[in-house]
Design goal:
The protein is α/β, with parallel strands linked by helices. It has 13 helices and six strands. The structure holds zinc ion.
Length: 314
């Protein structure tokens, strides 16, 4: 039998653990087809994992998206065929699905007969990526993502880290790093600093969890190994453990939440769309009122909400 004193010893020496889910929005290539590239990480203490999953699943169930992945970019597109179906908004879900699929099948058959293979392939991909969302009209899909963003905003235990690069102002020669490397190093450094502050009071560790992507997996694993060995440019790594874990975003709700965060930041920076951003940005890691966790890498004179909140110290 364990003596009372040693049981007491064990219970007072437990440590805290944070999971940080990472995802990207936009393309890191220059120029690519987006003006910004964002890498975002949202961290929660492991004790909150279950309730976060339940929060997300509750909203998914309301919109009949129980088994669907939240892929914000695809969710919020305009599905033109929905506009062509008469009284689409007044139809029930099953009829909407039937009507949209009917339209899409006819369209694909037509494209298959045409000589434009590229358009056929592209359209087929678009239809496949959005097939789980076609029972919802655009305004309903928007409400769904807004509810998710609002929920994230209310998780006062969660912290957001992000590096948002305006590619026009990024000079790889000057920074000695690629866009992708810089964003990853920044996220790792900010997450580590966040953990160090808590660790000062209570032993705390953190782990990075990524959407699975073969190229990124290899690169970030190598980078992380080097950070463990020699630190990042900004900090030594003591509280983040292991190399990132790579998971299937289709099966893991929390990685989909990182997608919502990255998307919301990019939509704000590229289109000044504040609807989702204002919820998400509440969770930016802050120190003495300054949003240290989220940075917009751009020209010095930018007066966006991120720059204003990040530059208060200047
Ligand atoms: Zn800015």
């Amino acid at each position: 039998m364990t003596p009372i004193s040693s049981r007491f010893f064990i219970s007072t020496n437990h440590f805290q653990m944070y999971l940080c889910y990472i995802d990207e929005s936009g393309t890191p290539q220059i120029p690519g087809n987006t003006s910004h590239y964002i890498l975002a990480g949202i961290t929660i203490p492991i004790g909150k994992w279950k309730s976060c999953e339940q929060d997300i699943n509750r909203i998914k169930n309301t919109y009949k998206l129980t088994n669907a992945e939240i892929h914000t970019g695809w969710l919020l597109r305009n599905y033109t065929e929905q506009n062509k179906i008469r009284n689409f908004n007044s139809l029930d879900y099953n009829t909407r699905i039937y009507e949209v699929n009917k339209y899409r099948n006819v369209d694909l058959l037509k494209l298959q007969k045409s000589k434009n293979r590229w358009l056929y392939k592209q359209t087929k991909k678009n239809y496949s990526q959005t097939k789980n969302y076609i029972h919802l009209a655009h305004h309903e899909r928007m409400s769904f993502v807004e509810e998710i963003a609002k929920t994230i905003g209310n998780w006062n235990f969660a912290r957001l880290f992000a590096e948002c690069i305006d590619k026009i102002h990024f000079n790889p020669a000057k920074s000695n790093l690629s866009i992708d490397e810089q964003t990853f190093e920044q996220i790792v450094s900010r997450f580590e600093r966040f953990l160090k502050v808590i660790d000062h009071v209570h032993p705390t560790y953190g782990m990075l969890i990524h959407d699975n992507n073969e190229t990124v997996a290899k690169k970030h694993t190598e980078l992380m190994k080097n950070f463990h060995k020699s630190g990042t440019f900004w900090t030594s790594i003591e509280n983040i453990i292991e190399t990132p874990l790579f998971v299937n975003s289709q099966l893991t709700s929390m990685i989909q939440i990182a997608d919502v965060c990255a998307y919301s930041l990019r939509r704000y920076l590229e289109n000044r769309n504040e609807k989702l951003f204002d919820h998400i940005f509440k969770r930016a890691d802050r120190k003495d009122g300054i949003a240290v966790g989220v940075r917009h890498f751009t020209n010095f004179y930018c007066d966006c909400k991120i720059c204003k909140a990040h530059k208060l110290q200047a």
